[in-house]
Design brief:
By secondary structure, the chain is an alpha+beta fold. Helices cover about 35% and strands about 20% of the residues. The protein starts with 9 loop residues before the first helix and ends with a strand.
Length: about 160
């Protein structure tokens, strides 16, 4: 049988209380920094947000700063190529800037949802595209179909 005894005095008790207090302050500061980061992003959903239906996809785009016409103009399937061309590599760089990476889905079939953007202020030919795999947003862009159009990330 093994017996262990500890002598605990006021100095040790005060030291333990100070250490516990510092740990709690650290946790509070980390939680505050996280909530400020979330507030700074405007509540924009993170990559891989779950979008199980039309309403959730429209809400996701709204949180990104876009009002879109519902239902989607097109719903289609697309297979991400196993090897990227230089054009697709540049497109994936846009995805990486947003926190997505389509290279994780090489050879896989994704759902593409295309919406007409109503509030772009850049003309009537602006579309938003979401790439969805297993009900999660894995990529997307907003672009103009005009001849001198543009392409940008989902976050406004």
């Amino acid at each position: 049988m093994f017996i262990c005894t500890l002598k605990f005095d006021r100095k040790k008790a005060a030291f333990c209380i100070v250490i516990i207090g510092l740990i709690l302050i650290g946790i509070i500061l980390l939680a505050g920094a996280h909530s400020q980061k979330t507030a700074a992003s405007g509540g924009v959903p993170e990559p891989n947000a779950t979008v199980k239906n039309e309403k959730a996809r429209v809400a996701y785009l709204a949180q990104c700063g876009w009002t879109v016409e519902s239902p989607a103009l097109r719903e289609e399937s697309a297979v991400i190529p196993r090897s990227f061309s230089s054009v697709f590599e540049k497109y994936n760089e846009l995805q990486k800037q947003q926190g997505f990476d389509l290279s994780h889905y090489c050879g896989m079939e994704l759902k593409l949802y295309t919406y007409r953007v109503l509030d772009s202020g850049l003309g009537d030919d602006v579309l938003a595209v979401l790439y969805v795999y297993d009900n999660c947003v894995v990529g997307g862009d907003v672009h103009s179909t005009a001849l001198n159009g543009f392409m940008c990330g989902l976050r406004r």
